[in-house]
């Protein structure tokens, strides 16, 4: 029995209250873990879909780049692509789910400013540039999604460790202390009752 709990009725009541709160805390942690698990499953599904979309976009993008390289040559396309400017920015905000911060991003982008002329270029150049602009959007979305998954996994691990500590260490220890204190108090009450009976007999 812990030295913090002397076998008194006052400590017995305190320990009973503490044990009740601890069990409630464990139940809340289990509910939180379940909610986070469902959210994680949802985001993992989104990640899989997004990776597939990105793969398909990259295949189209690579095909467009090959066409451009054939049409105008690698050096010309490299010069054009290096000069393309995008007026865009990413605004990252966090929302809270069961104490876990989940990032979300707003990617605002202006229309691409064409800094090249139509001479010595083809339609494939425009298509390639806009396709890779679309790929950039998906990459940003995937990065945010992967960060969310990472945070959810970390939070779930933290909740799991705390729940296990309550279930396997704190609750059993409190139950053991409670049983010992109850046993000692019951024994004292039986002894006191026996003494009172002896006293009454002597008085008679």
Architecture overview:
This protein is mainly alpha-helical and 204 residues long. It has one domain (9-50, 86-117, 133-203): Helix Hairpins (Orthogonal Bundle). It is built from three helices and two strands; from the N terminus they run ααββα. It has helices spanning 9-72, 74-83, 123-203, and strands at residues 88-97, 100-109. The chain has a two-stranded antiparallel sheet.
Mean pLDDT: 82
Computed over alpha carbons, the radius of gyration is 34 Å
Hey, roughly how much beta strand do the residues contain? 5-15%
* Structural class determined from secondary elements: mainly alpha
CATH topology: Helix Hairpins
Question: How many structural domains does the protein architecture include?
Answer: 1
| Main sheet attributes: strand count, strand direction, barrel closure | 2 strands, antiparallel
Count every helix, treating DSSP H or I runs of 4 or more residues as helices.
3
Shape, please?
rod-shaped
What's the CATH class label? Mainly Alpha
Q: Can you give me a brief rundown of this structure?
A:
This protein has 204 residues and is mostly helical.
Key traits:
204 residues, mainly alpha, Helix Hairpins, two-stranded antiparallel sheet, 3 helices, 10% strand
Strand and helix map with partners:
Layout: H1 9-72, H2 74-83, E1 88-97, E2 100-109, H3 123-203
Helix pairs in contact: 1-2, 1-3
